[in-house]
Design a protein that fits this description.
- This protein has 126 residues and is mostly helical.
- Strands 1-2 form a two-stranded antiparallel sheet.
- Strand 1 and strand 2 form a beta hairpin.
Length: 126
């Protein structure tokens, strides 16, 4: 199943926020991503309907379901690896983070594995 880049970004944000706090709510996502509450509410509704998250109607707590967590972890791992690799190549950390955020959503698994393999080989040769 193909998932839109924006949905990946929301799932990744939910994952990162859940690592920092016990409860993740729509307002937390809105603040972190710089989006309006109505935009986040629409995205959360879609993520819930597609089986990526649960939303507790009493507390407003959002949790990743297994399919959503799998996507979020994949994107987040790509982000960390790509930004680290770019910084090792001499790219400014802010630029590396921004570029990694864009690349992580469009890079194929094959290309990402090749970059990982190359980065590991470079590290082992150092």
């Amino acid at each position: 199943m193909t998932i839109q880049e924006s949905a990946e970004m929301y799932l990744e944000t939910i994952l990162k926020l859940s690592e920092k706090r016990n409860i993740v709510r729509s307002i937390d996502i809105a603040h972190d991503m710089g989006f309006s509450k109505p935009s986040v509410s629409r995205a959360i509704k879609n993520l819930k309907e597609n089986g990526y998250i649960t939303l507790d109607s009493d507390t407003g707590s959002i949790e990743l379901l297994e399919p959503g967590e799998k996507i979020a972890r994949t994107i987040y791992e790509r982000h960390k690896a790509l930004s680290s690799y770019l910084m090792k190549l001499g790219v400014d950390p802010k630029t590396a983070e921004e570029d990694a955020c864009r690349i992580e959503h469009v890079i194929s698994d094959e290309s990402f594995r090749a970059i990982q393999h190359h980065a590991e080989a470079m590290q082992n040769n150092s």
